[in-house]
Amino acid sequence: MNKIELKNMRKSEYALDEAYRTLRTNILFSSFDTKVISVTSCNPDDGKSTVSFELAKSLAEVGKKVLFVDADMRQSDFITKHTATVDLKGLSHFLSGQAPIGEVLNSTDYENLYVIFSGVYPPNPTELLTSKVFTDFVAEAKENFDFVIIDTPPLGLVSDAAVCIAQSDGVAMVVSSGKTSLKKAKEVKRAIESIGTKILGCILNNVRSSKNKRYYYRYY
User: Fold this and answer.
1) CB 195 within 8 A of CB 165
2) Which sign, positive or negative, has the C-alpha torsion 133, 90, 175, 155?
3) Which residue has the higher pLDDT, 159 or 9?
4) 22-26: long-range contacts (C-beta < 8 A, 24 or more apart)?
5) Which strand (E) or helix (H) includes residue 196?
6) Residue-wise pLDDT tens digits, 157-194
7) Which of 164, 61, 172 has its CA nearest to residue 110?
């Protein structure tokens, strides 16, 4: 297992921190058997990866042993944003048999938080995710961690997300205020319902809020 240092990508803001604490509380009280959670979105750049990672960090802060899995093996830039070490092996290496789990699982400088990056972009991400290797991996992770947070590709674009969601106990959908259309959100909701995985809720991201009449800021 590698030990990595993660970059701090945001400054602490009360409203933002409180939003993540509220999200964490809702997850903790959603169901005692909800351990594997997929986070998806309708479109790219809805903030899904940031929300899912901050949720994982927040759960780790209260003593939960958390595994964050970057399952976007098509266009994720999570590793370049969050660590200076970019040559780490990841999920695609493990699922394709190029590396054992011990080489892709990373402990972090956040206590209780572990990370698996997406790895190199494979030509067949859907096939890798539908393999028995991934099914067994999720089952084993569920046994060894209090929570497994899976950052999926946008369900509105590719089928990879549906495979991850099918392996999960619950799914949260991120929508971006002023960007995600109601039509698209309903389409993704119906797609989740067709999979049969419990919908934990919808996270409204990039909401405009005011501290006073002159100053506005955007928060999750």
Assistant:
1) yes
2) negative
3) 159
4) 23/51, 23/55, 23/58, 23/203, 24/55, 24/58, 24/59, 24/62, 26/200, 26/201
5) none
6) 778 899 999 999 999 999 988 888 899 899 999 999 99
7) 61
Dump pLDDT digits (tens) for 200-219. Answer: 999 988 777 655 443 333 43
Q: How confident is the model at residue 12 (pLDDT cuts 50, 70, 90)?
A: low
- Cα–Cα nearest to 41, from 136, 134, 151, 139: 151
Cα–Cα distance for residue pair 144/131, rounded to 1 Å = 21
CA distances from 161 to 9, 41, 86, 150, 209 (A): 25, 9, 24, 10, 31
- Which amino acid is residue 85, in one-letter code? T
Strands (E), the chain: 2-4, 36-41, 66-70, 106-108, 113-116, 147-151, 170-176, 198-205, 207-210, 216-219
Residues in the chain: 220
